[in-house]
Amino acid sequence: MNDDYVAGDVNQVDDVTSDDFYDGDNTEVEAPTAVAALTYIAQALADAPEAVSVSLSEKSGKVVLSLALDGDDVGRVIGRRGRTAQAIRSLVAAAGARDGVTTSVDILD
């Protein structure tokens, strides 16, 4: 590693284990920055922002963020050829790295 490394630096990813964000009984998974980023982006894109909801779960060492939207907004969030969804996933991954977790975004229809 680099000598200039500082623990918690947003430009570096610390070594984390699933124990850092998962307490083992399937109830507590945390990624507040990733959730806030996904919620903000989805509400900005949606025609019905009040229908946007994000739920968390843990799967194979990843934090899975499930995005639920109004039926008419799903296509808008996915975008042509999935480009908008891919951009959202990239932004949420960066926010998740800030939380010290690996994220995955599922868009529910």
Features:
109 residues; alpha+beta; 3-stranded mixed sheet; 18% strand
What's the structural blueprint in terms of helices and strands?
Blueprint: H1 32-45, E1 53-59, E2 62-68, H2 74-78, H3 83-99, E3 103-108
Parallel strand pairs: 2-3
Antiparallel strand pairs: 1-2
Helix pairs in contact: 1-3
Q: What does this molecule look like?
A:
With 109 residues, this protein is of the alpha+beta class. It has one domain (29-108): K homology (KH) domain (GMP Synthetase, Chain A, domain 3, 2-Layer Sandwich), CATH 3.30.300.20. Helix content is 33%, strand content 18%. The protein has helices at 32-45, 74-78, 83-99; strands at 53-59, 62-68, 103-108. The chain has a 3-stranded mixed beta sheet.
Count up the helices: 3
End-to-end Cα distance: 43 Å
Number of distinct beta strands? 3
The CATH homology group name: K homology (KH) domain
Number of domains: 1
CATH class division: Alpha Beta
Q: What kind of oligomer do you see?
A: single chain
Mean pLDDT: 82
Report the β-strand fraction as a percent range.
15-25%
What summary fits the major beta sheet? 3 strands, mixed
